[in-house]
Amino acid sequence: MRSGPAVRRLSDWDAERLRALAGEYETPLYVLDLDRVRENAARLRAAFDAEEISYAAKANTTRPVLETIESTGVGAECASAGEVERALAAGFGGGDVRYTAVNPPDEDLDYVVQAATEHDLIVTIGAADTLDRLAERGFSGRLCIRANPGVGAGHHEKVSTGAAPKFGVPLDRVPELASEAVDRGFDLVGLHAHAGSGISGEDLQAHRELVARMGDLARTVIDEVGRLEFVNVGGGLGVPYREDESPLDLEAVAAATREAFGDVEATLGIEPGRYFVADAGVLLTRVNTVKPTPETTVVGVDAGMTTLVRPAMYDSYHAIRSLAPDAGARETTSATVAGPICETADVLGEDRSLPDPERGDLLAVGNAGAYGYEMSSNYNSRPRPAVVAIDGETARPAVRRETVADITELETWSK
Ligand code: LLP
Q1: Is the peptide bond before 240 cis (omega within 30 degrees of 0)?
Q2: N or C: which end of the chain has fewer CB within 10 A?
Q3: Run of H or E residues at 147
């Protein structure tokens, strides 16, 4: 597998090809490059060569992405019954699928317990009473306990998970729960924790601390219950969203992770989502209006917070590039790129230096492969965009554009 460069910038995408795709499939349009997904998988595999890798499917569950990642030989970490169903449908072997229960609805547990009789899924619990709920359903499959390591990290407080009480069993209660699970006949195979999402720079210290705590916990639990197959220290590997940001040194992260883990008789595992897919995707959007104002030039585009919510939700920065054929020959303007949603937060980028925008221009938004289409919505009755997957020279539609009829079809009210 080719591992490619450590980062693919928005400027590396072929403008002519993107213009052709927008012409054929219209906008807003997500473009996913499966070759880049493979390259990202190959770099992860090379750095974490002795570790178990799962893909956190929540970053992007479109079928071509799931199939491509499955073919690289990694497992799937799923946050819902729906994700489990889609991972299995895309070809992941049952034994490689993990369901991470976060306050799981009954229907999730019903589905997962049923699926576990056929597929050897791993169910990760984050609360002691989930054990009772699994026992009530006669679950006898592989079990993992998610610990709350008391240390969080991430690109925004809203994605710092490790210390949030919502997630995981408090660290000091895990050994007792592990013993209880074994006494009650569960097949306890692993421990799990996740610090947060978008870890880079100084967050790496928090990641190391989490891994060290999990190493200690694993040694205690193994002493008490005899054995564990794995300890998964979560995902969260960050990618550079800004053009001048450096990519993570994966080899160094892997070495630091191993060192912090120490000597444990269980396989170390990671479950990144973003790292597999972020720079494998761009969002294409068309300029609808150009409005000079005293403060800035507002560039109104056809994609907004319903297409890509990250800027509105986390103040996330995504690079924006003009794909106008003559972009290089234009003067530049400082612009605010705003969507068509009636909300102040509906801005994809502020103070962006862009070649003088004109109506009809095509813009590309970078790093849109992770948590882009996946978090899109129908707010303002905006149909969700289409997704096209490119693989070498070929391009194939992956998800068709939604219509207003698709949205209203769910309504059951009649006069
Ligand atoms: N494992 C668990 C248990 C998680 O909760 C997550 C992410 C991951 C793995 C993968 O994290 P990643 O490697 O993708 O950073 N919507 C936010 C990110 C929320 C992530 C939630 N959990 C965003 O757009 O930044």
Answers
A1: no
A2: C
A3: strand 142-148
pLDDT score recorded for residue 101: 87
Confirm or reject: Cβ of 146 under 6 Å from ligand 1.
no
Average pLDDT on 295-313 reads 98
Residue that terminates a domain, selected from 234, 256, 276: 276
Q: Do residues 134 and 271 both lie within one domain?
A: yes
- State percent of the chain over pLDDT 90: 92
Q: How far is the CA of 276 from the centre of ligand 1 (A)?
A: 12
Question: By residue range, what is the domain housing residue 403?
Answer: 279-408
Q: Which atom of ligand 1 is nearest to the CA of 234?
A: 1
What are phi and psi for residue 37, nearest 5 degrees? -60, -45
Average pLDDT over residues 234-245: 96
Residues 322 and 223 in one domain: no
Both 123 and 200 in one domain: the answer is: yes
State which amino acid sits at residue 132.
Answer: D
Average pLDDT, the chain: 96
Look up the pTM and report it. Answer: 0.98
CB 192 within 8 A of CB 123: no
Task: Tell whether ligand 1 has an atom less than 6 A from the beta carbon of residue 203.
Answer: no
Centre of ligand 1 to C-alpha 156, Å, is 12
Our answer on whether the CB atom of 154 is closer than 6 Å to any ligand 1 atom is no
300, 270: one domain: no
